[in-house]
Here is the input.
Amino acid sequence: MGRRLLNLFRGIFKSASFWGLVGLTGLGFTLLMAGLFVFKPNFLMIMDLKVYDAMFKATYSETEPEAVIIVDLDEESLARFGQWPWPRYRVALMMEKIRRDGALSVGMDMVFAEEDRTSPRIIRERLGSELGVDIGFTNLPEGLEDNDLILASILAGGPFVLGYYFDLYQMDPLPGVETRDPVLHPLQLSTVRSRGAMPLEETLFRAPGVTASIRPLSEAAPGSGFLNVAPDADGSIRRVPLLMAYDGKFYPSLALAVVLNFLESKQVTARVTSGGLESIRLGGQVVPLDPKGQLLLNYRGPSMSFKYVPAKDVLEDRVSPGTFDGKIVFLGTSAAGLKDIRIMPLDSVYPGVEAQATVVDNLLAGDFLHRPDWALGVELISIILAGVISTVFIIFTGGLWLLLPLGLGGAGIWFGSLHLMGNYGIHISPMVPLIALAGNFGL
Here is the structure.
């Protein structure tokens, strides 16, 4: 009898030790996943980005926006009129045709950082200095001697927005490129700050330098905006900055400047909290941003989701009258040789100008994707709950019976996240909670 009791107590002790070890293992793995979530090593960030891509592909709606048109410097246009850059009188002619057809705002996804070397004035000066030859152009009106002045006169009379690049890495500029005392168009920005909010300049990308169009063009254009994007760790474009700080002032992206030009407004209000920039307001629209001032892009589909019009068709008057009437127009390129091709979640060959068009369409439609400041807290709580609950089930439930509750839990996390993204535009990552759930079951 005594031996039986002793064996019984030994069995209970061994069983308790085993399930105690199971509990400690589960809790330890849960804490490990919570720690990885907080410190975000690079491999986990890459995995999270891929999970975001899968969620986006499962929830987005493919549409062709009607408010934005892209005039494309495509391969056929380059073959027809020669390699880029074209003489600026040709660009001016194209811009004037677009303006006369009724475009309300035109963004130029390019930088004219040097003088046009095909101008008759430049040709005459170079032949004189290099070869000692003094030539003249007979019967050439004085106004046509400088292609830059021709383009400047067109820019001054239309709803055009020039692009420029902020130098975020303090790289040495190319000789002759306009970087000193550039003419830019800062925002009229007012700030609403909550208690404990940091200065707006400290939360945004801050640029030490800029590469802008030459002064005659920049001074003539009614607006301008930066072209910089911020690829994620895997090189894909999922978000773009709408604001940057430079020399004590705040500047809009090309897309934001185009929308402000379209709305005939210069005023933007920024809301800043202790976590950084939260949102901006333009007109009656509140635009959610991350603390760095970036908008999470709600892509409309893979490349060529917008209406494209070849540049050669504009120049040769092959575009139906009224095509641009009341529209926002971007001048950009899909030609691979001009190196403005990006990677995005739906396509590995995506024209950069279409990312600008996507921002404009998101701002006009108001169907934003965003990751609220409470998302991190929800994800961390989800990791802990998934780990603790799965550990409890493992201790008190047989192996086969675990499949049902853990399967339902995993499905709830995944489809709940999809529901939030697809119906409310809120991104809550399910990745680490799912790893905690599956990892505990596996262990």
